[in-house]
């Protein structure tokens, strides 16, 4: 017996190896390497991604949702895609009111006394105007508890209020920009399947937070009822310095007692009247603060003219390359077109929009006919809560009726059964280094093969980790495969994200070309494989 | 014999060791450690250096030579030193005309078309005003050789000219700030005596440079004769980004044919009429450039109001703690008080001025009576060529008649024989790590001992290397001992030097305290040692 077994074992080993190889051959994803080479050639040698980026930023940036510039950028994207010969190019209305658009018409802030200097600052989005050019005193609101509020009664009328404390500024011992080290990518590669419902921290310190929120609300009310002319806040991020300001929407003050669903958004036509609000660079704000602390009268000159458009529905821009034998099935790429307003929204997210536009241009240019329809979605309202992509998914593919029970209450349309996959880009200018699988283990062997042409370009990491905060979540929320790529951070969280320095020059041409090629390859391979992309269990 | 010798050798060894020790005791510099401890205690625990810095920057900054703010800062320094009880506090007139002072009264620059945005920019010092607020087109001067000049004939009248090419912007993969690594300090410590006359590079490429200078001159002349309203240039430094602008004096265009001694300085009352000149942040300038390259009309709105004061002499601020038995002999500390104008001149050089003021405050506060007189000099006109310190040295101590033959033509006064040493600070906010010996080998054993109390604080490096570019050179030029400390670079060359971000928040409190203590200790030890500081051979 033993001997027979011994003889057989060699034979069985050979058979096993053969079968293993055969079985690998069966499951290994096929790649059309000739097509990948063509996409690389077009994307690397005749790229238009930087031209597109310049149009979206230098000419039509910033692109605040529903602002005149957002519309111009959408017009440009639509016209450009029509010129490329894409099909079904259209504005996709959300069919529900977003609110008012807004734009900055004129802004300047000068310190007049005790020393003249022009200030680096930027108004918050949807801030109202100040009538005329105003020269007035600046008052620092030194309020640590409710009893301090009385100190300012009768003292704020017609004044500009320094609302926040100073922002500590540190020397830049850490570089703004970096690429992921192998050790970080390895951690991602070795990540376990994420928990469906991550544990939240307990209620510790809740009462302290509530007291702070209530005091903050009372400070805002004080400024408003006392007739302050405008409110200044220091740019808040300790790493964003050198005059860079981080600015988003104006604050609509609410007491913590008001439930979130009873609060009006700042862009709502029903929003309460708010004060003009301006974020000042840390260095310049701190200077005013120190002048005031010395007891010196600080006088400022402010010009702030803003304009609102009428409240209406938001909209996305959609276009496609129609499929052939599987044309009812859809592969989608996308990025949000809207941005914040103090820069030109270059890395958040003209870069993603330009990469998707360039990817679909490359595919169209190659004259190919994909089996499935390849569609592009440029979303509005992402910065206000993924509004554009959520509306699109809800109208076309379905919704999750109970958001607290993620996958138990999903109601999808028949179209959802023919939706293969959505690829999103929205993490700055950085090079794609792989894909966040969003907990979808079944796509791992597929993407592993698809990354092969990009291994030598540094893009070979797959992680079961989730990444959040952008439009793939709208698809993921109803169980449709939706992915973001792993991107080198570059200066995203340290310099450009939602700041005045989110501008064209912060984009890296080589990285955006690489990303457009990868986006086109993933779209093409998804559109032509035998099966749709498998879904999460 | 052998045995005797053997016996004797032990005895001789002991004698030799005793003598060696005795001889060391003879040459080793004495330190009054109790006094050093008192200086450290006052400087570290009751420091006023940041308060002084805030006054010089937040309140009286920037301090362009002979500007109203320079005078205010000088008044503050004088008054403060008088309050501290210093003697002989006075303004030290150069007794020769510097030229006109200048200040910025109002500046703003907005892009109106094709997209509105407020621009980060700053006028060059001594730029003239633009009358009223002007809205006009911006023209990019695409001139590569003289034949291109004609293209712009008749096209610049009333226009704003983009004079320079765009500045490439790179992601910030290198940190702005760093401290010297041990390896760098070791290189300094191991430096050989510098050559008296360093070899200059040959004339290679001189013709090319001359052609470029001539073309540049013709471009300026074109703008002026064609009636352009103002000239914009991109902030030039590829490392200074994120909206930081590097700005110094306005250009007075001269053909390379005009010898340097025939050229008028921009602050001279005889300077030719020049155009208003503004430096724009690289990111914003590049945006305009790309808009224009797309063929889009770019419309800007410019307000620029500047004011000149009448031409008069420059002046320094001088004060002293009188000496006792050697009061005719002088130990000096100093720093330049003047600055460039787009920030508040914090690291260049309110930090040096604040450190010297704090050092002399500490010494005065301790109620000590130094043997030699300890004098402080706060210089004007450093940024225009060490004017204040050169004038002071020339009037009091002598001059080098032939600057091309450094030490052969020096003519000194009797006062120079009683001048011991000058210590300067002017390399930003960074911590003192040692001393540049300026080729003076004789001071090495002295300073080696004086650095002992600072060894554990990271300041123990002596280098024979020279350092240049600031006021110790005025003393060194006539053979008087003049030193600068080795300072950690921090963000000096990467972010703050001559830029809009040279502001208070860029100063590091711990470093300035350390420096003030060291400056006070070096002044004290110099004032009380038996001999004056030895001079270079």
UniProtKB/TrEMBL annotation, chains A, B:
Keyword Protease on entry: yes
GO biological process, one term: proteolysis
Pfam family, one: Peptidase_M28
Entry keyword annotation includes Transferase: no
Record's subcellular location: Endoplasmic reticulum; Golgi apparatus; Lysosome; Secreted
GO molecular function, one term: metal ion binding
Gene Ontology CC: extracellular region; lysosome
Keywords linked to the UniProt accession: Carboxypeptidase, Endoplasmic reticulum, Glycoprotein, Golgi apparatus, Hydrolase, Lysosome, Metal-binding, Metalloprotease, Protease, Secreted, Signal, Zinc, Zymogen
Highest taxon of the lineage: Bacteria
Domain Peptidase M28, residue spans: 316-520
Signal peptide: 1-25
Quaternary structure, from the entry: Homodimer. The monomeric form is inactive while the homodimer is active.
Protein name according to UniProt: Carboxypeptidase Q
């Amino acid at each position: 017996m033993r001997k027979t077994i011994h003889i057989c074992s060699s034979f069985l080993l050979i058979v096993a190896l053969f079968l293993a190889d055969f079985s690998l051959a069966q499951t290994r994803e096929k790649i059309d390497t000739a097509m990948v080479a063509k996409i690389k050639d077009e994307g690397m040698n005749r790229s238009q991604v930087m031209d597109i980026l310049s149009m979206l930023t230098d000419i039509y940036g910033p692109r605040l949702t529903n602002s005149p510039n957002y519309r111009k950028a959408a017009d440009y994207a639509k016209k450009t895609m029509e010129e490329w010969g894409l099909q079904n190019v259209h504005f996709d209305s959300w069919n529900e009111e977003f609110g008012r658009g807004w734009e900055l018409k004129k802004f300047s802030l000068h310190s007049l006394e005790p020393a003249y200097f022009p200030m680096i600052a930027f108004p918050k989005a949807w801030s109202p105007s100040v009538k005329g050019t105003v020269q007035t005193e600046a008052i620092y609101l030194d309020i640590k508890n409710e009893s301090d509020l009385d100190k300012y009664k009768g003292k704020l009328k017609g004044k500009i209020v320094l609302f926040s404390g100073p922002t500590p500024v540190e020397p830049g011992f850490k570089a703004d920009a970096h690429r992921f080290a192998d050790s970080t990518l390895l951690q991602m590669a070795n990540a376990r399947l994420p928990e469906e419902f991550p544990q939240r921290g307990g209620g510790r310190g809740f009462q302290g937070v509530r007291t702070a929120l209530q005091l903050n609300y009372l400070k805002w009310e004080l400024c408003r009822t006392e007739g302050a002319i405008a409110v200044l806040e220091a740019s808040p991020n300790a790493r964003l310095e050198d005059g860079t300001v981080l600015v988003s929407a104006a604050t609509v003050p609410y007491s913590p007692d008001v439930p979130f669903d009873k609060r009006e958004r700042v862009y709502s036509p029903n929003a309460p009247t708010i004060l003009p609000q301006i974020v000042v660079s840390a260095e310049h704000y701190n200077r005013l603060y120190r002048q005031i602390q010395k007891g010196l009268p600080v006088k400022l000159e402010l010009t702030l003219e803003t304009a609102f458009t009428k409240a209406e529905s938001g909209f996305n821009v959609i276009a496609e390359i129609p499929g052939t034998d599987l044309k009812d099935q859809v592969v989608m790429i996308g990025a949000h077109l809207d941005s914040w307003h103090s820069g030109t929204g270059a890395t958040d997210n003209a870069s993603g929009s330009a990469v998707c536009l360039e990817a679909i241009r490359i595919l169209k240019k190659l004259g190919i006919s994909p089996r499935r329809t390849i569609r592009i979605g440029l979303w509005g309202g992402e910065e206000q809560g993924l509004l554009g992509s959520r509306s699109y998914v809800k109208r076309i593919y379905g919704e999750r009726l109970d958001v607290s029970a993620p996958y138990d209450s999903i109601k999808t349309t028949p179209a959802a059964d023919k939706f293969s996959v959505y690829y999103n880009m929205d993490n700055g200018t950085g090079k794609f280094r792989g894909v966040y699988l969003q907990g979808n283990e079944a796509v791992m062997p597929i993407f592993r093969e698809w990354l092969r042409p990009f291994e030598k370009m540094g893009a070979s990491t797959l992680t079961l980790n989730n990444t959040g905060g952008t439009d793939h979540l709208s698809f993921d929320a109803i169980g449709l495969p939706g992915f973001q790529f792993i991107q080198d951070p570059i200066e995203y969280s340290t310099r450009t994200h939602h700041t005045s320095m989110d501008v064209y020059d912060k984009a890296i041409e080589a990285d955006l070309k690489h990303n457009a090629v990868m986006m086109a390859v993933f779209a093409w391979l998804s559109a032509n494989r035998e099966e749709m992309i498998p879904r999460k269990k």
